[in-house]
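Late entry, evening session. Most of the bench is empty. Finally got around to the prediction I had been postponing all week. Sequence below, unchanged from the version circulated by S.P.
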Amino acid sequence: LYMAMPVAIIGYQFTVIWGNRAQILLLHSTRDRLAKWGFGPYEIPRLFQLFDLDDSDEIDLEEFKQLLQQMEIGFREDDIVELFKTIDKDSGGSIDTKA
């Protein structure tokens, strides 16, 4: 009985992580692509400012698409949409540098 509980907990967590694997891989790929082109965490707020076309201090999906397409780091449109949804934790339709 004592062994069954830890195995069940680990099994459940594995299932949760396995279910999120696409998002995890997309985030990892994004970090790698940004690093390859010399973009680090300190450049992201500046990029957001440049592509925040309506000066709302937030990036909506269209602005986010323009940002990644202009950077030319190899994202397909469906990857961009999925990345946006992953970053937009509250599903409010926009992200900011604090996200």
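Two things to note before I forget:
Helices lie at 4-19, 21-36, 44-51, 61-71, 77-87.
The chain has five helices and two strands.
Will write this up properly tomorrow.
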